[in-house]
Specification:
single chain; 472 residues; alpha+beta; Rossmann fold; Dna Ligase, domain 1; D-amino Acid Aminotransferase, Chain A, domain 1; five-stranded parallel β-sheet; five-stranded antiparallel β-sheet; 15 helices
Length: 472
C-alpha cells in the first residue's frame, strides 16, 4: 500500500468524519497529521501527530505544516475561519503542501452582502424579492438609519431577516417572529451588528430548507445528494438557531419534499455562480467544497439563503460514511483537476447531535430535564463505540466539542459535543440506528432533539411544500 501523509485542520465532528474515511482507506496507508481546536478523542486516537491550536490561527497551522512538509502529501480544511483568513494561500506558499479548500479570495462566506450582489448579477431569481444593505458610512445618526429601516419594515410588513455582513459579528442573524417580535427589539439587534459594519435586511422567506454540497477540482463540480439540516435547538423547530442539531439524507439524491425540478433549479443556480467565479479564477482557486449552499424551497422556487466555501456540519457527516470511492483517491483527483463525480451508496443516513445543557439555552428552557449531578462530569462514549463496531457500516460516532483531559477522561465543552450517524436502507431505519447510538452515550447531562428525521416532521415538510406549490 502506498503511504500518504494528510494534514487535517479540524474544528469538530465534520473533520472527525474526514479523518475516519481517510483512516478506512483500502488503497493507501494513511498517516494523518491533525491541527485541532481541542484534544478531540477520536482525532487524537487516529492521528500520527496531533496539535491543539485553540483559535486555529493561520500562523500556527503553517508552522505545524512546515515542520512536516516532507511527510505530508496534501492538506484539507474543514472550518471556515482559517479558510477566510487565507490558510491555503499561506501554507502553500511557505511549505509547498497543496491544500484542499478555496483560497482567501474565494472564501465567499466572508461577506453575505457580496454573496447577495453576486447572485443578483448572475441568478437574481434565487435572491429574495427585496433586500437592502445598510452602510454605517452613510448615516450620521441612529435616527436616520432607524427611519430608513422602518420604511423597509413597512414595505415588508415586518417579515424580515437581519444579517450582519461578516460571520459572527454582533448577535448574528436575526429573524422576525423568532428572535424579535417588535420593531424596537429588531432595532436593538440591528444596532448590535451595525456597529461592526454592513448589515443586510431582507425579505423573510417561507418554505422548506435543503443543503446542497459539491466538491470541486477547480474546473468541475462533483455534486452530492441533498441533505436536510435542523438548525433550531428544540423539537418542532422551536428555540434559537444553532450550528445544526442533526440532519438526514434519503436513499437517492432528493429529499422527500423535493421534486426533480427543484434539484435541477438548484444545480442551475450553483452552475451560474460557478461559471461567474470561473471567469476570474484560475484552474485551482476553487478546489475543495466551494459550494455548500443553504436553499429554501418557496412558492416561487428555490431561493439561496447563504453560500459557504466549506463542507457542511452536520451535513457532510451524512455523506462521507457512504462514499464508495476511496476518499484519498477523491482528494488526489481534486488536486489533479479530474474529479467529475463521486460515487455514493444508495443508502439513507441520519445524524443526531448531543449537546451540553447550556448549549442553545436548553438548561434555561427545560431546567427540569437537566440531570444536574452530571453537569461538568465526564462523558462515556465506550458503549456507543462498541455498538458502532458491532453494527459495522451502519453506525459512526464522531466527537465534536469534546476533549481528553489529563485524568484520561473525555469531557464535553461548550458547543455540540458528539454526533451519531445512522446508516440504513431507509430514513427511519437510519434514524433508529442513530438514536440507538445516542442512547448509549452516558454522562455530561447531554441532550438532543427527538424529532430529527421523524416521520411526523418529514410529513409536515411534504405537506407544507404541497400547499406552497398551490399558491399562484
Amino acid at each position: 500500500m502506498e503511504k500518504t501523509g494528510i494534514l487535517v485542520v479540524s474544528y469538530g465532528s465534520r473533520e472527525a468524519a474526514m479523518i475516519d474515511v481517510f483512516a478506512r482507506s483500502q488503497e493507501y496507508k494513511t498517516e494523518i497529521y491533525v491541527v485541532d481546536k481541542q484534544r478531540n478523542p477520536f482525532n487524537v486516537k487516529k492521528a500520527k501527530e496531533h496539535l491543539v491550536v485553540s483559535d486555529l490561527n493561520v500562523a500556527d497551522i503553517t508552522k505545524f505544516a512546515k515542520r512536516r512538509r516532507d511527510r505530508v502529501d496534501f492538506g484539507i480544511v474543514g472550518p471556515e475561519k482559517p479558510i477566510i483568513e487565507g490558510v491555503r494561500d499561506v501554507v502553500e506558499k511557505e511549505t509547498g503542501i497543496p491544500m484542499i479548500c478555496p483560497n482567501k479570495e474565494y472564501a465567499i462566506e466572508a461577506s453575505k452582502v457580496a454573496q447577495r450582489r453576486l447572485l443578483q448579477r448572475v441568478a437574481s431569481e434565487a435572491n429574495p424579492t427585496k433586500f437592502k444593505v445598510f452602510d454605517p458610512k452613510n448615516y450620521s445618526s441612529k435616527g436616520a438609519v432607524k427611519r430608513d429601516l422602518f420604511k423597509l419594515l413597512d414595505e415588508l410588513d415586518n417579515q424580515v431577516v437581519v444579517k450582519p455582513d461578516h460571520p459572527a459579528a454582533g448577535k448574528g442573524v436575526g429573524v422576525w417572529g423568532d428572535h424579535f417580535t417588535s420593531r424596537e427589539q429588531l432595532f436593538d439587534h440591528f444596532l448590535a451588528n451595525f456597529q461592526h459594519g454592513l448589515v443586510m435586511v431582507e425579505e423573510k422567506l417561507e418554505g422548506e430548507e435543503s443543503s446542497f454540497q459539491a466538491f470541486c477540482d477547480g474546473r468541475h463540480l462533483a455534486i452530492l445528494p441533498e441533505t436536510r439540516d435542523y438548525k433550531r435547538a428544540f423539537d418542532d423547530d422551536k428555540g434559537p438557531n444553532t450550528g445544526g442539531m442533526g440532519s438526514y439524507k434519503d436513499t437517492g439524491d432528493l429529499l422527500p419534499f423535493m421534486t426533480p425540478d427543484d434539484r435541477d433549479k438548484e444545480i442551475e443556480i450553483v452552475n451560474k455562480l460557478f461559471n461567474e467565479l470561473m471567469k476570474k479564477a484560475d484552474k485551482t482557486d476553487l478546489r475543495g467544497v466551494p459550494f455548500y449552499d443553504a436553499f429554501i424551497h418557496t412558492s416561487r422556487g428555490p431561493k439561496l439563503l447563504e453560500n459557504n466555501s466549506r463542507p457542511g456540519d452536520p451535513e457532510i457527516q451524512n455523506l462521507l460514511p457512504i462514499v464508495k470511492d476511496d476518499f484519498v483517491d477523491v482528494c488526489y483527483k481534486i488536486l489533479e483537476g479530474n474529479l467529475t463525480r463521486i460515487n455514493l451508496e444508495k443508502r439513507a443516513t441520519v445524524v443526531t447531535y448531543l449537546a451540553p445543557p447550556n448549549y442553545g439555552g436548553y438548561a434555561t428552557a427545560f431546567p427540569d430535564h437537566v440531570n444536574t449531578s452530571e453537569v461538568g462530569q465526564p462523558v462515556d462514549l465506550s458503549e456507543a463505540e462498541k455498538l458502532s463496531v458491532k453494527l459495522g457500516d451502519k453506525m459512526r460516532v464522531y466527537p465534536a466539542s469534546m476533549e481528553i483531559r489529563n485524568d484520561g477522561n473525555t469531557y464535553a465543552l461548550g458547543s455540540r459535543a458528539v454526533c451519531v450517524v445512522g446508516i440504513g436502507d431507509n430514513i427511519q431505519t437510519a434514524r433508529d440506528i442513530s438514536l440507538e447510538g445516542v442512547r448509549a452515550i452516558k454522562g455530561g447531562a447531554l441532550w438532543h432533539r427527538n424529532d430529527i428525521a421523524s416521520r411526523e416532521h418529514i410529513q409536515k415538510s411534504i405537506e407544507h411544500m404541497r400547499l406552497l406549490r398551490l399558491q399562484p
